[in-house]
């Protein structure tokens, strides 16, 4: 008797319960196409996709932790954007692999999306260049947060590096957004790539006859008293050339913050002007001598002299 009841329970479980579960997972939610191109979307396929997403997310997170475990917090934050991009690509591949493994013909999807992918590839060509540029920047550390760069004639301090763009603040507190492909396809000046110290200069011309050694002394004094100018390496003066209207000098000095370089140069120019005035050193302006020859008057005078002789 007990065996009959047990057999009936097993039969009910196998045929009714398990059969109902199988029917549910094999239920065709969406069906389109016909023949070889027939596509059926079932709960089983959806469940496989969800499970694949969860496994792929866990695997990518584990790889990211393993790859960035020895990096500092700043570099780890950069790689978050890279792994987000990889995650999206992985999800697309996983979807098609799971659908194909579950018996769904993905050929119609691939055929239908081929033209779309080509169009998107052409339209988003520059976007992909930016993404690749961002990956290269992060991997080879050719650009770091805090670097001072010059792009299209504008100088800015980098404060954020993302996968597609880099953001920098200019000297007048404006934000410039730089596409990352510029850093791999164009020449970019990085003032602080090797070190923070940069050499700057201020040019000035003095009148002919000025005491050149006194000029050198005053120029060195103007920078030695300026805040922000480094004592070592020492500033020095170059006698550049004998100009058309002046003797041309340059005072060269070192600073450790190129971002405030215009302000430092301005203060040095103020001091040079004050010191030159106190020591009677003249800064000349261009002068030209203009000679006017009146050929017509000379010709008329010669004709008059000839007539008088006749």
UniProtKB/TrEMBL annotation:
Membrane topology: Multi-pass membrane protein
Domain Mechanosensitive ion channel transmembrane helices 2/3 as annotated: residue spans: 84-125
Lineage: Bacteria, Pseudomonadati, Bacteroidota, Flavobacteriia, Flavobacteriales
Residue stretches making up the Mechanosensitive ion channel MscS domain: 127-192
GO cellular component, one term: plasma membrane
Chain ranges of the Mechanosensitive ion channel MscS C-terminal domain: 202-283
Main location: membrane
Matching InterPro entries: LSM_dom_sf, MS_channel_1st, MS_channel_C, MscS-like_channel, MscS_beta-dom_sf, MscS_channel_2nd, MscS_channel_C_sf, MscS_channel_TM-2
Family, similarity comment: Belongs to the MscS (TC 1.A.23) family.
Residues annotated as transmembrane: 44-67, 88-110
Protein name: Mechanosensitive ion channel protein
Organism superkingdom: Bacteria
Single GO MF annotation: mechanosensitive monoatomic ion channel activity
Keywords: Cell membrane, Membrane, Transmembrane, Transmembrane helix
Subcellular localization: Cell membrane
């Amino acid at each position: 008797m007990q065996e009959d009841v047990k057999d009936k329970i097993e039969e009910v479980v196998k045929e009714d319960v398990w059969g109902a579960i199988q029917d549910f997972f094999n239920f065709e939610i969406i069906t389109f196409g016909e023949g070889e191109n027939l596509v059926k979307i079932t709960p089983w396929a959806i469940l496989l996709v969800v499970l694949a997403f969860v496994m792929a997310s866990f695997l990518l997170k584990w790889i990211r932790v393993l790859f960035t475990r020895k990096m500092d917090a700043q570099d780890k934050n950069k790689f978050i954007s890279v792994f987000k991009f990889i995650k999206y690509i992985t999800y697309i591949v996983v979807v098609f692999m799971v659908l194909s493994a579950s018996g769904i013909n993905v050929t119609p999807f691939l055929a239908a999306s081929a033209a779309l992918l080509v169009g998107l590839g052409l339209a988003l060509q520059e976007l992909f260049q930016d993404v690749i540029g961002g990956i290269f920047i992060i991997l080879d550390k050719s650009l770091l947060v805090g670097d001072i760069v010059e792009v299209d004639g504008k100088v800015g301090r980098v404060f954020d590096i993302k996968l597609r763009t880099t953001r920098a603040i200019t000297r007048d507190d404006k934000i410039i957004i730089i596409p990352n492909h510029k850093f791999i396809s164009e020449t970019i000046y990085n003032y602080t790539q090797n070190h923070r110290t940069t050499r700057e200069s201020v040019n000035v011309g003095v009148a002919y006859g000025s005491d050149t050694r006194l000029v050198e002394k005053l120029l060195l004094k103007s920078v030695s008293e300026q805040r922000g100018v480094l004592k070592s390496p020492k500033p020095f003066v170059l006698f550049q050339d004998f100009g058309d209207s002046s003797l041309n000098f340059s005072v060269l000095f070192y600073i450790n913050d190129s971002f405030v370089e215009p302000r430092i140069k301005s203060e040095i120019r103020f001091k040079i002007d004050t010191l030159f005035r106190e020591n009677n050193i003249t800064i000349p302006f261009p002068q030209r001598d203009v000679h006017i020859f009146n050929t017509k008057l000379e010709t008329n005078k010669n004709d008059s002299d000839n007539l008088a002789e006749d």
